[in-house]
Each structure stands twice: as C-alpha cells, then as structure tokens.
Amino acid sequence: MENEPSANEEVCGEAYDHDVVIDHEGKHGIQWHCARPECGVEVWDPAPITTEQ
Length: 53
Ligand SMILES: [Zn+2]
Prior knowledge:
The chain has strands at about 20-25, 30-35, 40-45. The protein has about 55 residues and is mostly beta strands. Strands 1-2-3 form a 3-stranded antiparallel β-sheet, with no helix packed on it. The chain binds zinc ion. Zinc ion binds near residues 12, 18, 34, 36 and 39. Zinc ion binds near residues 18 and 41.
C-alpha cells in the first residue's frame, strides 16, 4: 500500500476555494484568513470593494 505523490494534489485555493474568514474590513482592503487548519493562509486583499469614491 503506497500513496503515490500526486501532481493533482488538491490544494486549498486552487482545487477548491479557501474557507474565507474575514478578520478586518476597511476602506483600503480586507484582511482574511482561511479557516482550514491544513491551509491557514492569511491574505490582505487591497480594496476589492469600492462603494465610495
Ligand atoms: Zn485555504
């Protein structure tokens, strides 16, 4: 019984979407992280939402 290394390994954020948890939402961007412990990315997403000029 061997687990072959797979080139098609499922990667969070690639094979499927991150489980996004928003930490901070501001007018200059959103800080969020992925709730999946095996992933655990932290992302600063600059100004994805513009409701004001
Ligand atoms: Zn993730």
